[in-house]
Specification:
The protein has 614 residues and is of the alpha+beta class. It folds into 3 domains: 115 residues, OB fold (Dihydrolipoamide Acetyltransferase, E2P); 270 residues, Bira Bifunctional Protein, Domain 2 (BirA Bifunctional Protein, domain 2), CATH 3.30.930.10; 123 residues, Gyrase A, domain 2 (2-Layer Sandwich), CATH 3.30.1360. Strands 7-10-11-23-22-21-18-12 form an 8-stranded mixed beta sheet, with helices on both faces. A hairpin with a 2-residue loop joins β2 and β3. 34% of the residues are buried.
Amino acid sequence: MTVTEPVQDPTQLAQQLAFEPRTQFCGEIAEHHLGQPITVNGWVSARRDLGGIIFIEVRDRSGLIQLVADPQKNAEVHDVLAALRSEDVISATGPVSKRPDDTINPKLATGSIEIYPTRVSVVSQAKTPPFLPENAHEVDESIRLKYRYLDLRSPQMQHNIQLRHKITNAARTYLDTQGFLEIETPILIKTTPEGARDYLVPSRVHPEHFFALPQSPQIYKQILMLSGMERYYQIARCFRDEDLRADRQPEFTQVDLEMAFVRQDDVIALTEGLLTTMFAQAGIEVATPFRRMCYAEAMGRYGSDKPDTRFGLELIDFSEVMKACGFKAFASVVQDGGVVKGLCLGGTENYSRKEYDDLIALAQKWGAKGLAYIVYTDEGLKSPITKFFNDDELAAIQQTASAKPGDTVFFVADAANTANKLLGRLRLHLAHKHKLIDTSQHHLLWVVNFPMFERGDNGALSPMHHPFTSPNIEQLDKLHAVPDEVTAQAYDIVYNGEEIGGGSIRIHNRELQQQIFELLGLSADDIQRKFGFLLDAFQYGVPPHGGLALGLDRIVAMLCNCPSIRDVIAFPKTNQAMCLMTQAPGKVDLEQLLELHVRTIAPPQTTPKSTDNR
């Protein structure tokens, strides 16, 4: 065995390893420390040489403090500071001094003080970094993620991660005061259908068998309720193999909770208190109770089950006006059970023909058959469709829309659900285009009474939420006769147009749960194989129960004003589900695969994969 020769002087190495422990965090030093000797530890953030006097900004998690070295006062310290580079790690000791009045930096918490160190040691030297942490926001995200440890040093990421901690800690404290127990549930579980693809883990002990990583702790928290735990919560890690975007990650975190002997109002009231506490950590006060809106109203007025209510531009129903109008393209849709709905947009006096054509093309891209419009001006109406209406019909359209000169009314004719969703997307697009959203507002609302089921293209029923959601009790007689009309005891919490959580009252009756499984097309064998252990447990006394899960990543991102949840997760994945820092996922040795009784099969070659990992 060859022993590597030392590349560093042992005395120098010993000095680095025996650094002085800090007595104060950099950002917490204040004027009441004047004259006191203080030791700080941290990274070199900036160095300036002004006529021989060297100024160093040293940074730790709490902030910055300035060090000053004058060669006339301490030549040894001056020589050390002169050799420092960005991101070197140092330990410095010296008295706190008042800055001269003309050098005070009011933008810095420690801008009125500085330290003349009597002793400085270099704990660790840094290579020239690919970017400086304070400039991370100017760097391409793929570079930031590759060097995430540098990105995490940036002021913005330091703020985001610290705020995430405060919000999480506030949630824990609040739930503890409400009598909840924090209970961990398994990460290696049985695969069950929950909407997205599972991440599977092969079992070495049981060949050809697999665990799944949990998409949520749903079944376990229900079992905890029938176990008599009554109030459970968990800062739960969840995993979903699905297409990614700015607000999705393959692994994410929920504030997950479940309560026994509760009704919907109880869960909602408790969650409002929880969110009020969490938002307060970001300096945001919200009043309770939050607004409630039925799913049907949300879709009918806003075209979305997560409506942004910070601006108007609500959907308008023209179906009554159009059902017998002269424009057959509209009238026939209404007569066949569809709707004609629209939006009335102000501020379109200077719209060009191209802008209207671009909106039509965008609507068609979203799946619209077309997008009609009428422009109202001081000189009259402009539109390709006005010729199909008589004067009375045009007057009724204007009255229904409350349109005035400078407005444009847009129309979509289709099935109600399709028309609502298309106009909902158009509403948001126009709101951003015309800057209609008051970003200083904080609107929280509940969407309730969701449909129990939705139908796929093949007509089969699937659960709108999940198969353990209870229908509204007064509609049980419709469950088999007209299941599409049944609403669920389900509720989503929406913040500024984004769903940040959701839950439901669960089914606690074994027979009803069996019926729901059967309505969803599961055979007796499927039910037993996938959920037999749950139905078995239901034979031994189940309390009424319900719960909710809040998306912690999304809440923190919104409170930090971040466009992506990657900016509030310490080590996120890219949109290609990769970790650029560790290069995960990676290939494994053949020996590992053999031990797990697994072999890989190369996918068929199609088009070459993109090398863009962003």
